[in-house]
Structure formats: C-alpha cells, structure tokens
Design a protein that fits this description.
187 residues; mainly alpha; two-stranded antiparallel ribbon; rod-shaped
C-alpha cells in the first residue's frame, strides 16, 4: 500500500466547499480568485492606483544583499494581473447637440402638424357651410321647377301667352293602321 505524506508547509485542502463537477482544481481556483480579489481590488477608486513603496536613500542601502532561494523570489515578486480596460469617454457635446436637434425637430414638427390640422379644420367648416347653402338652393330650385311643371301653372301661363284650349282632337291614320291624336284648330 502506497502512502504519500504532504510536506509540513503545505496545508491539506478538503473538497467540502468545492463543487462535485470541478474536483480539486475548481475548489483551488475559487479560493485563489477570492484571495486575489482581496489582495488586488479591481473595483472602486483604488483599483488602478499604483502601490507606493517607501524608498530609502542609496547610502543607507549599502548593506550586502542576502542570497535568495527560488521559493523566496516567488513570494517576494509582485503578482501580475490583467488590468481592467480604461474607461472610454465619448465627447458629450455632439451627443447633447444631437439630442437637442432631435427634440427641437420633433417639437417643430408637432407645431407644423397642429397648424395644418387647424387650417384644414377651418377649410372643412367653410366647405360644410357652402354645402349646406348649396343644398338649400337645390331644394328651392326643385320646388320652383315642380311648381312650374304643374298643370294649373302651365294653363295659366298659356292663357297669358294667348293660347286657347282645343275642343276636338284630330286623328291621323298611318299606313300601318295606327291612329295618332292631333289637336285640331280651335273654333
């Protein structure tokens, strides 16, 4: 039976918080990402500010540099991370001008439309009045025509013109045998 022991500096990690589908690597990645979020914020006002290191004058640093092991340099070097993209700021003046032009053209369009509607309403009212006058004139003319076509009016008008009613009609016999009634001379 093979038994592997972990070095003392390495902590034993359990999979209790890791999802089943990801296994160990998913759990480690989640812990690593959480640790990175705490150490290197990418949100807010301090996200892109450089870290300030205090420097000492060169003559104080004259002490010999101790030899570092590979594991020390790994921990001492700063972690590299991807910086979020710089915010893009478009100029606001053209956008504001465009919005103002659109709003003004909309308002002017509505005013022109309302003016045309009012003009057409006046024209429509004038046409309706004219139509009602023409309807009254037509009715009056029809009444006059019917009055002048009546037999009583025709007889009185004929008398005024010197015409007399005929007493005996004359009949014409056509070659095909039809008879036509013709008024004869009056006596």
């Amino acid at each position: 039976m093979n038994v592997t022991t972990l070095p003392g500096s390495r902590q034993r990690r359990t999979q209790q918080g890791a999802p089943r589908s990801g296994g160990r690597t998913t759990g480690r990645d989640a812990e690593h990402n959480e640790q990175q979020r705490r150490d290197y914020p990418t949100d807010g006002a301090t996200a892109l500010q450089p870290e300030h290191e205090t420097t000492t004058p060169a003559h104080e640093n004259m002490q010999p540099v101790p030899q570092r092991h590979a594991s020390d340099t790994k921990q001492a070097s700063p972690r590299l991370r991807v910086a979020p993209p710089a915010p893009v700021s478009a100029p606001r003046a053209p956008f504001v001008a465009l919005v103002l032009v659109l709003v003004l053209s909309g308002v002017i369009g509505i005013l022109v439309l309302n003016t045309r509607i009012a003009e057409n309403a006046f024209k429509l009212d004038a046409l309706k009045t004219k139509q009602s006058n023409l309807d009254r004139d037509e009715e009056r003319l029809r009444s006059d025509l019917a009055n002048k076509e009546s037999p009583v009016t025709l007889a009185s008008r004929a008398k005024q013109l010197g015409l007399v009613p005929s007493r005996t009609p004359a009949f014409l016999v056509l070659p095909d045998g039809t008879k036509l009634e013709m008024p004869g001379p009056s006596k």
